[in-house]
Write a structure and sequence with these properties.
Layout lengths: L8 H7 L8 H4 L7 E9 L2 E6 L2 E7 L13 E6 L9 E6 L5 E4 L9 E5 L3 E7 L7 H14 L2 E7 L7 H7 L5 E4 L7 H7 L3 E6 L5 H8 L25 E4 L3 E2 L6 E2 L3 E4 L13 H6 L2 H5 L18 H7 L5 H13 L2
Parallel strand pairs: 3-5, 8-9, 8-11, 9-10, 11-15
Antiparallel strand pairs: 1-2, 1-4, 2-3, 4-5, 6-7, 12-15, 13-14
Helix pairs in contact: 3-10
The structure holds guanosine-5'-triphosphate and zinc ion.
Subunit structure: Monomer. Associates with 30S ribosomal subunit, binds 16S rRNA.
Keywords: Cytoplasm, GTP-binding, Hydrolase, Metal-binding, Nucleotide-binding, Ribosome biogenesis, RNA-binding, rRNA-binding, Zinc
GO cellular component, one term: cytoplasm
Length: 336
């Protein structure tokens, strides 16, 4: 571990025009030479990183300072990346994130916590009974997902205990894809919705999220308290998310198989704070509704009962469905 490996990007750029007299890897051990991996879990300052076909453990290099490294991050890693027991690589760079899902512990908490990077779909796991569905919580998670630019998918579990009709009526008008599962359910459709994507699974504890993840990924062993292979220190911390690869699904490519995608499982939550989300960012997630706000009075909050809201006018003209407006207003309320 020489300081050569800690050169800044500026140094690397400065050296770029130099004629190479030695093999590139020896000549420039800069970050662009470092291997790129994906952070699959975080445990007490140790990062488990998937590099090509193998996993390795790494710490954050000192020069990253307070830069956060979270599950889903694509990172450049130097040092011993063999993944062999007792080895430790160093994360020297975090690539720019395409998306960040954030959450605050509650609405008064000023500290927003980025929880997952680079996902493209948010799967809200909700039980139809036991525990009963809480639409307030679904709305809040939807708001966070729209704010982060993730496509929502509402996954209703325990369909053996209650029917999904009421929730379907509330969420389909928002354009939210809904999947229903129960023990022994055929997961083909859900697998197709997950294929080729990185999906964050979020839900209240007890909804059956671990059961679902285990059904999708038979070797995931979620909730069994697997011993951490790296530290040997007992079970994975339940405060961190973990990225798990889905098995390939039948597809139409030459090999007849398609990337099954990734599940990023997050610990069960009791609440979903939104202090970081503004009303504007909720509205921005619904371009068709936003277009109808042209006739609103200045500073209109679009809430139920406010005078001269263009959204009410759009419903009156038949240009917007009442169900969709009501669903949208619940989200606006949830975001406040
Ligand atoms: N009837 C019924 N029970 C289910 C179903 N899915 C899960 N359960 C049960 O619900 C309970 C909670 O399931 P888990 O998978 O541990 O729930 P979880 O969402 O992972 O909960 P946390 O670990 O607290 O986050 C268990 O007793 C499961 O057996 C289902 O589809 N139908
Ligand atoms: Zn309005």
């Amino acid at each position: 571990m020489t300081s050569r490996q800690f050169r800044t990007d500026e140094n690397a750029a400065f050296e770029r025009p130099r004629r190479r007299t030695r093999p590139r890897t020896k000549d420039r051990p800069s970050y662009s030479e470092a291997e790129v991996g994906v952070v699959i879990t975080v445990d007490r300052g140790r990062f488990r990183v998937l590099l090509g076909g193998h996993e390795t453990t790494a710490t954050k290099a000192r020069q990253l300072g307070r830069t956060g490294v979270i599950v889903g991050d694509r990172v450049r890693i130097v040092g011993d990346t063999s993944g062999e027991e007792g080895t430790l690589g160093r994360i020297v760079e975090v690539e720019e994130r395409t998306t960040v899902l954030r959450r605050t512990a509650d609405d008064d908490d000023p500290y927003e916590r980025p929880i997952v990077a680079n996902a493209d779909q948010l799967v809200i796991v909700t039980a139809l009974a036991d525990p009963p569905p809480r639409t307030g919580m679904i709305d809040r998670i939807l708001v966070a997902g729209f704010d982060a630019g993730l496509d929502p998918l509402l996954c209703l579990t325990k369909a053996d205990l209650a029917g999904p009709e009421e929730l379907l009526a509330q969420y389909e008008p928002l354009g939210v894809l809904v999947q229903t599962v129960q023990p022994g359910a055929d997961l083909t459709e859900l697998r197709a919705a997950l294929a080729g994507r990185t999906s964050v699974f979020v839900g209240h504890s007890g909804v059956g999220k671990s059961t679902l993840v285990n059904a999708l990924i038979p070797d995931a062993h979620r909730g069994i308290g697997a011993v951490n292979e790296v530290t040997g220190r007992g079970r994975h911390t339940s405060s961190s998310a973990i990225a798990l690869r889905l098995p390939p699904v039948a597809g139409s490519d030459a090999r007849g198989a398609e990337d099954g995608g990734w599940v990023i499982d997050t610990p069960g939550v009791r609440s979903f704070g939104l202090s970081h989300v503004t009303r504007e960012s909720i509205i921005a997630a619904f371009p068709d509704l936003q277009a109808q706000t042209a006739g609103c009075s200045r500073g209109c909050t679009h809430e139920t009962g406010v005078p001269e809201c263009g959204l009410d006018a759009a419903v009156a003209r038949g240009e917007l469905s009442r169900a969709r407006l009501e669903s949208f207003r619940r989200m606006i309320d949830a975001g406040q």
